[in-house]
Amino acid sequence: MYHGIPGRHRRIVAFYGRFLGPGDIAFDVGAHVGSRVRAWRKLGVRVVALEPQPDCLTVLRLLFGRDDGVVIAPVAVGAQVGTARLGLSSATPTVSSMSPEWIGTVGADRGFARVRWDRSVEVPVTTLDALIAEHGEPAFVKIDVEGFELDVLRGLGRPVRALSFEYLPPAHDAALAALDLVDALGRRHGGAYTYNYSPVETMTLASDEWLDADGLRALLDRFRPLGRSGDVYARLSPDH
């Protein structure tokens, strides 16, 4: 479902072509089984794929372990270097999370009624700042970590050119907190982010124009009642 659906890979490549090009560096925080890694490599991007789940790591190493343009790091990303516990969902690994609060929030939602977080493992944690020091400045950072997005962003001390983070309607307030942090980070360093939203895995942007933070909040308010997840995209304005 991640690598074999006809046309899906082509749509992902075309979508990320607006953010990335040959020679760029991109961080895939929560790489899962590498659908973004595959697309970014098609664009000539050097990729740092970060994934702490053991089963996903097996797939990543099978698909990209011999690719010199991909670094596979078996770590999570957070606000500070250390360790943390990752709650695993054996039946639905895409919702494994390091945020007990997020698990509690979405676990009470009807759409997650059958999801169980049945075990946990301790995983090493690094930060975006540490990754930048080791691998260089990324042109794009994808953050998909099931409720831990705010912690990941707290480990970033300066703006990057573009990034994305997941939006889930049951955790609406958490997404707005992440938006506030990104917006403040840009302004604190003399920059300005603009925003857009892509529902689910459509690889399309919901707004024809890039929006300021208030505009994005209004857009998410329209999508929230639909109950469908997606991704918020942020990019520094050309003047910055």
TrEMBL record:
Keyword Chloroplast: no
MF terms (GO), sorted A to Z: methyltransferase activity
One biological process term in Gene Ontology: methylation
Pfam families in UniProt: Methyltransf_21
Domain Methyltransferase FkbM: 28-166
Keywords: Methyltransferase, Transferase
NCBIfam families reported in the protein's UniProt record: fkbM_fam
Entry protein name: FkbM family methyltransferase
UniProt lineage: Bacteria, Bacillati, Actinomycetota, Actinomycetes, Pseudonocardiales
